[in-house]
Amino acid sequence: MKRLRLILALCFTVCVLASCTKTAKYTVKEQKDANGFTYKTVEGDPAKARIYTLDNGLTVYLSVNRDAPRIQTFIPVKAGSTYDPSETTGLAHYLEHMMFKGSSKFGTKDWSAESKLLEKISDLYEKHKATSDKAEKKKIYAEIDKVSQEASKLAIANEYDKLLAVIGAKGSNAWTSTEETVYVSDIPTNELEKWLQIESERFSKLVLRLFHTEIEAVYEEFNMSQDNDGRKAYSTLLASLWPTHKYGQQTTLGKGEHLKNPSMVNIHNYFDTYYVPNNMAICLSGDIDFEKTVQLINKYWGGFKRSDVPANVGAKEEPIKEITEKTVVGPSDEYLMFAYRFNGYSSEDRKMVTMIDMILSNSQAGLIDLNLNQKQTVLRAGCSTRFMKDYGMHTFSGSPRAGQTLKEVKNLILEQIEKVKKGDFPDWLIGAVVKDMKLSQIKRFEGNNRANEFVDAFTLGIDWNDYVSFTDSLESITKEQIVKFANEHYKNNYVVVYKRKGVDKDVMKVEKPKITPVPINRTDRSDFLTKILNEKTSPLKPEYIDFKSKIKKEELQKGLELDYIKNEDNELFKLYYIFDMGKKHSKELALAVNYMKYLGTDKYTPSALQEEFYKLGLSLSIRTGAEYSSVSISGLKSSFEKAVELVEHVISNAKADDVAYRNYVAGILKNRSNSLMNKSAIMWSGLFNYGKYGKFNPNTNILSDKELNAINPTDLTKLVADMTSYKHRIFYYGQDDVAKVKEVIKKHHTVSAELKELPKPTKYTEQSTNKNRVYFVNYDMVQANILMITKKNQFNKDQLPQIKLFNEYFGGGMGSIVFQEIRESQALAYSAWSSFSTPSKADNSNYILGYVATQIDKLKLATDGLLELLNNMPHDQKAFDNARIAIQKKIESERITKDNIYWTYDSNRDLGIDNDYREGVYNLAKKATFKDLDKFFNENVKNSKYTFLVVGNRKLVNMKTLRKLGEVKELSLKDIFGYDK
């Protein structure tokens, strides 16, 4: 017996030694740090994360990244729209908004008095919710408005945003989805402890202050969704895909009737139930010390009490056994989407559907990519997956060409699915898909945003080793398995939604009760904010870039320069051929560049060429903008020379195809037609350019139908081939040394000895804004969108510090003057902002922009409110000081790294700046006074005249209101696009 035990012991020892010398990838290890905190790591984890679980159940994900002294933070809560009570949908989203209103320690100047008023408001909302009598509801809401006025006098608005500003936070926001609500911010590493103090206080107790003005913002968001045909179509798809489960029956924004009857009691109950440590996580990636960080988290969060969380059990759906068809109508262009339903995130379905999705559409060599998009048999088509805890979906979408029906588009997509079911795809594609996904994983884990991966793993309940090993697990999937799965699951068991053009008679507008604007407390400051301000942190010193030392430059010949930065992090390379010419220099150039995607060469067919790139894990992009064009290629270091060889082959040997060109032109004309129905295109392409330049502008100066059809496609391929005969530059970012890069470029990038000067660009005349005028375009919508613009002086680089300071104070986020006044105080718009905008080129002008998206009945109040601010800037010394501190903190912790060094240098160069101008911004922020800001405002902003660009429904907009703003001119679609069909 002893001998047997000895043999077993020896065998065990050998096994342990073997595992130590050849550790299995993705093995989970559990150990304790120096302070006794237990954590887990995963062998082969690209994030090299430590995962802690505190005694109270709080999960902590930590990953180190030394690129910059900053930390990307996420605080996810396992609670989203599917957790909402069925009688008060939209509750999780309400709560997300209210979490920015402060706590009992900040956001208030007298919590004892304020809390009593908030209780009274809560009771009134319950009465309001309980009655169905409209007159009684109106009476109760008037009382809510009255008490809210009293309570608002005790509130300090946006103090949370001020707290984050003074620690140098960026990108502070939140989102709500089906199973999660997530709070996000990017902070300097030396402010971690302050951030933890702020967040632990914010999450310690829910305070629903300034509730009725924030509900107004939620109303606006709901009404905005009514103007979004895509959102309506997607909601219809989900409702039919899940006729019972909350995935389909409860949207994030909630039902309109529920928005009208909010319950503060229900929101508090929801918070108390789900916002507990064992249902939350802290996810950090950045310049951190593992052990010090978890100690700090435990210090501020370890005292939170865990609580049992009720299981959120979703309804079981019956199998879909037949095709379900739905139709949505609206003013935008027509398209369709359809989806198959699958099991959830942890199921084997996800692996198979992911592979099928990539075989069908990977943006390069999928069946849909090659057979539909490249061959131009539809205007565009694609597919994507979405997997949640209980169920997943595989969604397909397509837009028709002129004269093509939506059902024809659907059938063409279904034909590609049938090819998968028949195994009619190349064997090599499976391996290429896995390689592509591994490259994507490398890119996702490059920077601090890897912390977002932690969020997904936590909220979906996936062990980190399973999460990071997912791509590797696809390697064992065979073609036979894919074909078998496709035949079993892709049948007549899908839901299809046809988005057609028409008037939606079922649009529900949430009528908002009358509210009185609440006062904004600009003078008081809570003891908590004062304490945070007074706490000393280890200072960070700003680091400015010396572009000359960071970018190696090699003149390959006169007019051709190689710029080089080494990639110190991974095996990826990026190579760019950059040309300082674009649409302004040649209308045909953009046409030629976009035509290239449909062509092959004398060696490759169009599809074979895309397949060759995909096999090598290469991504090719040829783009042109107004004054800039580029050819770029990226992939792994091992494919660099082959990549250059292929790019040069494509540029020089693209083979014109007359049929492809005719289809290409037909597609351009259909896209133009679709733009006439697109609200965003009408405002930001059409109206904006018209308001800035007048009738002759970049949006109207296009090739006509006749000109397009008269072009010889061979001339377009010659135009692309001829690009390299002009002066240009090459930028490389990768691991090969500069000598190797230079050698490869010289070998394959053969150009003439004397490169041509660039052609002169078309000049567009910036219109004078010496008087108020209104340009109006009619569009069928619930809201009105208003963009105000005024031209100022020509760009002056010496003004940049003042401009940055003004934007930070006046319109730079949720703590800014514009946001506080327009949304927080008066609840006039969901979206409101203003900025002093600088151009991309030094010879262009600065502009002041102001934007509001608001209800028709608030159009006058919203525009008057924004104009008042732009003419009489409120003086808030504390807000100004916060803006100064915020700028300093951000610059102290910013680091321009990797290939961003080059793109920062490049954009500065276009503005005539050869240094890191942030130094001037920082120095001004340290010493500026309000007198300096006033001087800038009075000389550059105050008493400006504006061109008001308005998109709205003519039947609903009060034209008298517009005429009070200035002379009104209603523009046709032909006026702003240059065509109307």
Could you tell me the strand content as a percent range? Answer: 15-25%
Please identify which CATH superfamily of the domain at 773-977 we are dealing with. Answer: Metalloenzyme, LuxS/M16 peptidase-like
User: How does the major sheet shape up?
Assistant: 8 strands, mixed
Poorly predicted runs are: 1-23
Radius of gyration: 30 Å
Number of helices: 39
Task: Kindly state the percentage of residues in helix.
Answer: 40-55%
CATH class of the domain at 773-977: Alpha Beta
Structure characterization notes:
The longest helix is centred in the first third of the chain and has 20 residues, at 2-21. The N and C termini lie far apart (92 Å). With 981 residues, this protein is α+β, with helices and mostly antiparallel strands. Mean pLDDT is 92; it is low at 1-23. Among the domains are: 324-329 and 350-448 and 463-501, Metalloenzyme, LuxS/M16 peptidase-like (Cytochrome Bc1 Complex, Chain A, domain 1, 2-Layer Sandwich), CATH 3.30.830.10; 557-748, Metalloenzyme, LuxS/M16 peptidase-like (Cytochrome Bc1 Complex, Chain A, domain 1, 2-Layer Sandwich); 773-977, Cytochrome Bc1 Complex, Chain A, domain 1, CATH 3.30.830. It is built from 39 helices and 27 strands. It is globular.
